[in-house]
Design a protein that fits this description.
Blueprint: H1 3-22, E1 26-27, E2 33-35, H2 37-43, E3 53-55, E4 61-64, H3 69-79, E5 86-95, E6 104-113, H4 118-135, E7 141-147, H5 148-157, H6 162-174, H7 192-198, H8 203-216, E8 221-222, E9 225-226, H9 227-239, H10 248-258, E10 261-262, H11 264-278, H12 283-298, E11 307-309, E12 322-328, E13 338-342, H13 346-349, E14 358-364, H14 367-370
Parallel strand pairs: 1-5, 7-11
Antiparallel strand pairs: 2-4, 3-4, 5-6, 6-14, 7-12, 8-9, 10-11, 12-13, 13-14
Helix pairs in contact: 4-12, 7-9, 8-9, 11-12
């Protein structure tokens, strides 16, 4: 690092930390070494290839933290009083294997836990993310949003079966077109016994079950795939068995919903129109959506400049509500500089006895200069 780049990094850190402190976010620094399990459970086996792995003296698998949200959440759970809220910030290195790029790079962000005024908390995250980027010299931040909570409300209203729900969410997460059928021709006889045993199981328990079978058979990898990745493939195939087809009406409504794009006000009115025509009740989810939009406007942001897409998703095992990305409009072909959203279920995966309201964002500082290709 040159002297000038070191000075720039220091100035950016000071700017971000001052902003976070001004808004009441207390800085913490979780351990660099973290248990692997939660990252795999919530992000899938694919992330294993990007992590730096090690073991402790008892043989437990650890990794250098690939991001901050899970470590910050662990620390919050370790120190919180019952029902306590907390506003936490961080700035430091994270570690991922990245072809042709440094495996250690800086990340900053904030996480808000325990606030019951969810829509106001969401708006605060959007506004502070926007302000963070403008304070770092991004002249044209472009906000993109989605809402997994609204999609779940639609799936509930349409009475979509659990198997079809998993299939739909997986398609949305992977950016694949929705299909009306289960797309599983030929899978009913291949490994039918194992697939039947996996159907309906909790994903964590099912993954452990498959990994145990492979371990007993002495299989650690096949065709370059680890046992965990093989387990993920079996879980996907199990979810595709015997789920039945969507009805024509369900398929038509979902397809129409997933094509809705525009600013949040336009999206809300269009979704209300769809719900009315389909005679389904999305009032509670849309009331929350519109309340959040109102709080965002009250924060001084131009709601008309925000892009909402009903089919936009990030890490569906992770997020439970609104989703946020902010790009540099002057560099439209690069990856987002900031990403985040609401993840009320995450802390139950980490040991909390009940869901904890949680929302935040992470900022990839190195992307401010890199013009990193998508």
């Amino acid at each position: 690092m040159t002297q000038s780049s070191g000075k720039k990094a220091s100035e950016r850190a000071s700017t971000l930390l001052a902003l976070f402190a001004r808004e009441g976010y207390r800085r913490i620094e979780p351990s660099v070494l973290q248990p692997v399990d939660a990252f795999l459970d919530l992000s899938g086996e694919d992330i294993r290839r990007h992590m730096f792995l090690t073991q402790d003296s008892d043989g437990n698998e650890l990794c250098l933290r690939p991001d901050y949200t899970i470590p910050v959440s662990r620390d919050y759970l370790a120190e919180r009083d019952s029902d306590a809220s907390a506003s936490l910030s961080y700035l430091g290195p994270v570690f991922r294997q990245r072809a042709g790029r440094a495996g250690e790079f800086p990340q900053a962000g904030i996480e808000s836990f325990g606030r019951l005024d969810r829509e106001a908390a969401d708006a605060e995250i959007v506004a502070l993310g926007f302000e963070a980027l403008t304070s770092l010299g991004v002249a044209a931040p472009s906000i993109r949003m989605g809402d997994i909570g609204l999609l779940h409300a639609l799936l509930d209203a349409l009475d979509i079966s659990p198997v079809q729900r998993r299939r739909i969410l997986r398609s949305v997460s992977e950016g694949r077109p929705l299909t009306s059928g289960n797309g599983s021709a030929g899978t009913s006889t291949n490994h039918a016994g194992l697939l039947a045993a996996l159907e309906g199981q909790d994903p964590t328990a099912a993954r452990a079950f498959v990994e145990d079978i492979l371990s007993i058979a002495g299989i650690s990898s096949v065709g370059g795939r680890s046992a965990g990745e093989i387990a993920e493939r079996f879980l996907a195939r199990a979810a595709d068995r015997n789920g039945g087809d969507l009805t024509d009406e369900q398929f038509a409504i979902l397809t129409r919903y997933l094509t809705i794009e525009g600013d949040p006000d336009f999206a809300a009115s269009t979704i209300r129109e769809l719900a009315s025509e389909a005679s389904i009740d999305l009032d509670a989810a849309l009331d929350s959506f519109e309340a959040r939009t109102g709080f965002i406007a009250a924060r001084g942001l131009d709601v008309g400049a925000i892009s909402f897409a009903a089919g936009f998703a990030r890490h569906l095992d992770y997020y439970t509500g609104f989703i946020l990305e902010i790009h540099d409009r002057d560099q439209p072909d690069t990856r987002p500089i900031l990403g985040g959203g609401r993840y009320d279920s995450l802390l139950t995966h980490l040991g909390a006895p009940e869901p904890v309201p949680a929302v935040g964002f992470a900022l990839w500082i190195d992307r401010l200069d890199a013009g990193e290709p998508a």
